[in-house]
């Protein structure tokens, strides 16, 4: 059995830099046309100049002949000014501005402490039709980890959208039925969400199955099964508001398997196989292509890709690890067998 799909894009990807970039970028470039590249490097990509330089290093790291197009983002801080948004738009290579609430996730320490203090920047983004990409969790240590997305929607995102109804917003890596309901309640074309393979396939039991499982730890953390089911129903419905964003987040194995393991799941090499599995199990393979290849570019106002890929039923074993110059990375579904295998058309 075979499916032909318009070439997909990844609307949420971490490519890192240095050795790690060199060893992961080809996994995304192999089948994806474009990717929104997240700016949470150390130091973060806070200026257009830095985004342009980062883009150059990504292009250099690509296999020769690759047509992969990295779409860059800026990391919003408490000192980002509206002028930077103008520069970003003029550059032609920056496609979004990322909101990390300070302290919410990996490399978010330079993030925003109060988004309502950034209104002039957000208004400039509206003028330039530049979307705000949101890691949607509050950071208040008094709020239970599993409630942080819901509380963010209630106390930050919903009031923000009411204040700035013309701002385009992508709620990244949604994890709850609350997020699904919220996105569905917003104006189509203005608010959308990316969905990761892990939040479609795993629930929070996967964190503790037979012992602590650091490779299933990401942020926002996996939630209970009812939330997973709500997210599957949302994507299987064919709604245009949801699209593919892997949040593929490579970390050296030693940084995951240690006394304070960091958050992030490496899914780039398996993501398309996993999304196909989700849609097949939901009886919605006919909705897969819109999710992987249409809804994202339509939301961002970019053309859909013209080339195609094939997904073939061809069981394959996911490698246990991928080696890179200074370590190894354990991928999602490491060592397991997946049915669908992507090929270039
Ligand atoms: N998702 C994660 O758990 N980690 C991401 C950061 C992020 O997307 O929040 C990373 O950069 O490692
Ligand atoms: Zn995030
Ligand atoms: Zn991410």
UniProtKB/TrEMBL annotation:
Its EC number is 3.5.2.3. The keyword Zinc applies. It comes from the Eukaryota. Residues 10-309 form the Amidohydrolase-related domain. It catalyses: (S)-dihydroorotate + H2O = N-carbamoyl-L-aspartate + H(+). Pathway: Pyrimidine metabolism; UMP biosynthesis via de novo pathway; (S)-dihydroorotate from bicarbonate: step 3/3. Pfam families: Amidohydro_1. GO terms for cellular component: chloroplast. The keyword NAD does not apply. Transmembrane segments: none annotated. Keywords: Hydrolase, Metal-binding, Pyrimidine biosynthesis, Zinc. CDD domains: DHOase (cd01294). This is Dihydroorotase, mitochondrial.
């Amino acid at each position: 059995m075979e499916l032909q799909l318009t070439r997909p894009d990844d609307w949420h990807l971490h490519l890192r830099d240095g050795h790690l970039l060199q060893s992961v970028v080809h996994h995304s470039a192999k089948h994806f046309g474009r990717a929104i590249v997240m700016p949470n490097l150390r130091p973060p990509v806070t200026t257009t100049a830095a985004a342009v330089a980062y883009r150059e290093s990504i292009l250099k790291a690509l296999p020769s002949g690759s047509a992969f197009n990295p779409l860059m983002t800026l990391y919003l801080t408490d000192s980002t000014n509206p002028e930077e948004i103008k520069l970003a738009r003029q550059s032609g290579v920056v496609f979004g501005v990322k909101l990390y609430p300070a302290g919410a996730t990996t490399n978010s320490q330079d993030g925003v402490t109060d988004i309502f203090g950034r209104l002039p920047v957000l208004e400039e983004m509206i003028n330039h039709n530049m979307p705000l990409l949101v890691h949607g969790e509050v950071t208040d240590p008094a709020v239970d980890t599993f409630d942080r997305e819901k509380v963010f929607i209630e106390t930050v995102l919903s009031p923000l959208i009411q204040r700035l109804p013309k701002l385009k917003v992508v709620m990244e890596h949604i994890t709850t039925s609350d997020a699904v309901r919220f996105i569905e309640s917003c104006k189509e074309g203005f608010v959308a969400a990316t969905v990761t393979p892990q939040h479609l396939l795993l629930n929070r039991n996967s964190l503790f199955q037979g012992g602590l499982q650091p490779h299933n730890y990401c942020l926002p953390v996996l939630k209970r099964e009812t939330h997973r089911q709500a997210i599957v129903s949302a994507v299987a419905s064919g709604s245009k508001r949801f699209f593919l964003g892997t949040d593929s987040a490579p970390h050296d194995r030693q940084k995951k398997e240690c006394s304070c393991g960091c958050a992030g799941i490496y899914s780039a090499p398996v993501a398309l196989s996993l999304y196909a599995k989700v849609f097949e199990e939901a009886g919605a393979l006919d909705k897969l292509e819109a999710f992987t290849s249409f809804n994202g570019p339509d939301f961002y106002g970019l053309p859909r890709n013209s080339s195609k890929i094939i997904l073939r039923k061809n069981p394959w074993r996911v490698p246990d690890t991928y080696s890179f110059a200074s370590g190894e990375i354990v991928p999602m579904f490491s060592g397991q067998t997946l049915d669908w295998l992507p090929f270039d058309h």
